[in-house]
Automatic annotation (TrEMBL):
It is a multi-pass membrane protein. It comes from the Bacteria. This is Cobalt transport protein CbiM. One of its GO terms (biological process) is transition metal ion transport. It is found in: Cell membrane. PANTHER family: METAL TRANSPORT PROTEIN HI_1621-RELATED. GO terms for cellular component: plasma membrane. The keyword Transferase does not apply. The chain crosses the membrane at residues 7-28, 40-65, 72-91, 97-117, 129-153, 165-188. Its main location: membrane. Keywords: Cell membrane, Membrane, Transmembrane, Transmembrane helix, Transport.
Length: 197
Protein backbone atom coordinates (compact mmCIF):
# COMPACT_ATOMS: atom_id res chain seq x y z
CA UNK A 1 0.00 0.00 0.00
CA UNK A 2 2.98 2.29 -0.42
CA UNK A 3 2.74 5.29 -2.68
CA UNK A 4 5.93 5.69 -4.70
CA UNK A 5 8.06 8.79 -5.22
CA UNK A 6 7.04 11.19 -7.97
CA UNK A 7 3.35 10.23 -8.04
CA UNK A 8 1.67 12.72 -5.72
CA UNK A 9 1.28 16.46 -6.15
CA UNK A 10 3.19 18.93 -3.96
CA UNK A 11 0.10 20.07 -1.98
CA UNK A 12 -0.80 16.47 -1.11
CA UNK A 13 2.80 15.78 -0.04
CA UNK A 14 2.87 18.93 2.10
CA UNK A 15 -0.50 18.16 3.71
CA UNK A 16 0.58 14.61 4.45
CA UNK A 17 3.82 15.80 6.03
CA UNK A 18 2.01 18.29 8.29
CA UNK A 19 -0.55 15.69 9.40
CA UNK A 20 2.21 13.12 10.00
CA UNK A 21 4.20 15.51 12.21
CA UNK A 22 1.11 16.36 14.26
CA UNK A 23 0.00 12.73 14.66
CA UNK A 24 3.55 11.63 15.54
CA UNK A 25 3.73 14.31 18.24
CA UNK A 26 0.44 13.09 19.75
CA UNK A 27 1.59 9.46 19.54
CA UNK A 28 4.95 10.15 21.18
CA UNK A 29 3.22 11.89 24.09
CA UNK A 30 1.18 8.72 24.67
CA UNK A 31 4.27 6.46 24.86
CA UNK A 32 5.53 5.44 28.27
CA UNK A 33 8.06 2.77 29.26
CA UNK A 34 6.12 -0.43 28.61
CA UNK A 35 4.24 1.04 25.65
CA UNK A 36 7.56 1.93 24.02
CA UNK A 37 8.66 -1.70 24.19
CA UNK A 38 5.30 -2.87 22.82
CA UNK A 39 5.49 -0.24 20.06
CA UNK A 40 8.96 -1.47 19.09
CA UNK A 41 7.83 -5.09 18.87
CA UNK A 42 4.76 -4.17 16.82
CA UNK A 43 6.80 -1.89 14.52
CA UNK A 44 9.11 -4.85 13.86
CA UNK A 45 6.09 -7.09 13.13
CA UNK A 46 4.67 -4.42 10.80
CA UNK A 47 8.03 -4.11 9.03
CA UNK A 48 8.43 -7.88 8.58
CA UNK A 49 4.81 -8.56 7.54
CA UNK A 50 4.95 -5.85 4.89
CA UNK A 51 7.90 -7.50 3.16
CA UNK A 52 5.89 -10.48 1.88
CA UNK A 53 4.03 -9.39 -1.28
CA UNK A 54 1.38 -11.44 -3.08
CA UNK A 55 0.45 -10.45 -6.66
CA UNK A 56 -3.26 -9.73 -7.16
CA UNK A 57 -4.13 -8.52 -10.65
CA UNK A 58 -2.25 -5.33 -11.53
CA UNK A 59 -1.10 -4.74 -7.95
CA UNK A 60 0.40 -6.72 -5.12
CA UNK A 61 -0.87 -6.92 -1.56
CA UNK A 62 0.88 -7.50 1.72
CA UNK A 63 -0.08 -7.76 5.37
CA UNK A 64 -0.11 -4.50 7.25
CA UNK A 65 -1.27 -5.37 10.82
CA UNK A 66 -2.23 -1.74 11.34
CA UNK A 67 -5.54 -2.56 13.04
CA UNK A 68 -3.71 -4.78 15.52
CA UNK A 69 -1.28 -1.95 16.23
CA UNK A 70 -4.13 0.50 16.73
CA UNK A 71 -5.91 -1.86 19.14
CA UNK A 72 -2.80 -2.45 21.26
CA UNK A 73 -1.18 0.99 21.09
CA UNK A 74 -3.85 3.59 20.37
CA UNK A 75 -2.18 6.85 19.31
CA UNK A 76 1.26 5.33 19.88
CA UNK A 77 0.62 3.19 16.78
CA UNK A 78 1.27 6.20 14.56
CA UNK A 79 4.97 6.71 15.39
CA UNK A 80 5.48 2.92 15.32
CA UNK A 81 4.03 2.76 11.80
CA UNK A 82 6.12 5.77 10.78
CA UNK A 83 9.32 4.03 11.93
CA UNK A 84 8.40 0.85 10.03
CA UNK A 85 7.66 2.83 6.87
CA UNK A 86 10.88 4.84 7.18
CA UNK A 87 12.94 1.64 7.46
CA UNK A 88 11.18 0.14 4.45
CA UNK A 89 11.79 3.29 2.40
CA UNK A 90 15.47 3.51 3.34
CA UNK A 91 16.32 -0.18 3.15
CA UNK A 92 14.10 -1.52 0.35
CA UNK A 93 12.86 1.59 -1.51
CA UNK A 94 9.22 0.82 -0.69
CA UNK A 95 7.50 4.18 -0.93
CA UNK A 96 10.14 6.85 -0.47
CA UNK A 97 11.31 9.67 1.73
CA UNK A 98 9.25 12.46 0.14
CA UNK A 99 6.03 10.43 0.42
CA UNK A 100 6.77 9.16 3.93
CA UNK A 101 4.33 11.61 5.53
CA UNK A 102 1.46 10.66 3.23
CA UNK A 103 2.16 6.94 3.58
CA UNK A 104 2.25 7.30 7.37
CA UNK A 105 -1.08 9.15 7.37
CA UNK A 106 -2.63 6.61 4.99
CA UNK A 107 -1.68 3.68 7.24
CA UNK A 108 -1.46 5.33 10.66
CA UNK A 109 -4.63 7.38 11.06
CA UNK A 110 -7.05 4.55 10.19
CA UNK A 111 -5.10 2.25 12.54
CA UNK A 112 -5.49 4.71 15.41
CA UNK A 113 -9.18 5.37 14.63
CA UNK A 114 -10.05 1.66 14.35
CA UNK A 115 -8.11 0.80 17.50
CA UNK A 116 -9.68 3.54 19.60
CA UNK A 117 -13.18 2.72 18.32
CA UNK A 118 -12.76 -1.00 19.06
CA UNK A 119 -11.20 -0.68 22.52
CA UNK A 120 -14.41 -0.59 24.60
CA UNK A 121 -15.70 -3.78 22.93
CA UNK A 122 -12.33 -5.52 23.17
CA UNK A 123 -12.77 -5.56 26.96
CA UNK A 124 -15.89 -7.71 26.57
CA UNK A 125 -16.07 -11.34 25.55
CA UNK A 126 -18.07 -13.43 23.15
CA UNK A 127 -19.49 -12.07 19.89
CA UNK A 128 -18.90 -8.41 20.84
CA UNK A 129 -15.17 -9.08 21.24
CA UNK A 130 -14.97 -11.10 18.02
CA UNK A 131 -16.81 -8.45 16.02
CA UNK A 132 -14.64 -5.64 17.44
CA UNK A 133 -11.37 -7.52 16.86
CA UNK A 134 -12.26 -8.50 13.28
CA UNK A 135 -13.63 -5.04 12.55
CA UNK A 136 -10.53 -3.37 13.91
CA UNK A 137 -8.31 -5.19 11.43
CA UNK A 138 -10.70 -4.89 8.48
CA UNK A 139 -11.72 -1.27 9.00
CA UNK A 140 -8.12 -0.10 9.41
CA UNK A 141 -7.44 -1.46 5.92
CA UNK A 142 -10.64 0.06 4.52
CA UNK A 143 -9.68 3.44 5.98
CA UNK A 144 -6.19 3.16 4.51
CA UNK A 145 -7.62 2.30 1.09
CA UNK A 146 -9.96 5.29 1.26
CA UNK A 147 -7.14 7.69 2.21
CA UNK A 148 -4.86 6.22 -0.46
CA UNK A 149 -7.62 6.66 -3.05
CA UNK A 150 -8.13 10.26 -1.90
CA UNK A 151 -4.39 11.07 -2.09
CA UNK A 152 -4.17 9.69 -5.63
CA UNK A 153 -7.34 11.43 -6.85
CA UNK A 154 -6.28 14.78 -5.33
CA UNK A 155 -2.97 14.49 -7.18
CA UNK A 156 -4.53 14.44 -10.64
CA UNK A 157 -7.23 13.05 -12.87
CA UNK A 158 -4.77 10.75 -14.60
CA UNK A 159 -4.41 8.78 -11.36
CA UNK A 160 -8.15 8.25 -10.82
CA UNK A 161 -8.32 5.05 -12.86
CA UNK A 162 -5.28 3.61 -11.14
CA UNK A 163 -6.70 4.60 -7.74
CA UNK A 164 -9.89 2.65 -8.46
CA UNK A 165 -8.02 -0.47 -9.61
CA UNK A 166 -5.76 -0.29 -6.56
CA UNK A 167 -8.76 0.11 -4.23
CA UNK A 168 -10.73 -2.85 -5.58
CA UNK A 169 -7.72 -5.17 -5.79
CA UNK A 170 -6.97 -4.59 -2.10
CA UNK A 171 -10.45 -5.22 -0.70
CA UNK A 172 -9.62 -8.92 -0.20
CA UNK A 173 -6.95 -7.84 2.25
CA UNK A 174 -9.64 -6.56 4.63
CA UNK A 175 -10.87 -10.07 5.42
CA UNK A 176 -7.37 -11.44 5.88
CA UNK A 177 -6.35 -8.59 8.19
CA UNK A 178 -9.59 -8.91 10.15
CA UNK A 179 -9.08 -12.66 10.67
CA UNK A 180 -5.43 -12.26 11.73
CA UNK A 181 -6.30 -9.43 14.11
CA UNK A 182 -9.11 -11.51 15.63
CA UNK A 183 -6.79 -14.49 16.09
CA UNK A 184 -3.97 -12.50 17.72
CA UNK A 185 -6.22 -10.40 19.95
CA UNK A 186 -8.14 -13.53 21.00
CA UNK A 187 -4.87 -15.19 21.96
CA UNK A 188 -3.76 -12.11 23.90
CA UNK A 189 -7.14 -11.89 25.67
CA UNK A 190 -6.63 -15.42 26.99
CA UNK A 191 -2.91 -15.15 27.81
CA UNK A 192 -2.32 -11.43 28.60
CA UNK A 193 -5.72 -9.75 29.10
CA UNK A 194 -4.06 -6.71 30.68
CA UNK A 195 -2.78 -5.72 27.24
CA UNK A 196 -6.37 -5.03 26.18
CA UNK A 197 -7.31 -3.17 29.35
Amino acid sequence: MHISEGVLSAPVLAGGAVLAVAATAVGLRKLDGEDAVRAGVLAAAFFAASLVHLPIGPASIHLVLSGLMGALLGWAAFPAILVGLALQALMFQYGGVTVLGVNAVVMGLPAVAAGLAARPLLRRSGPAFALAAFGCGALAILGSLALLYLALVLSGDALSVFAGIFFWSHLALMGVEGAITLFILGFLKRMRPELLA
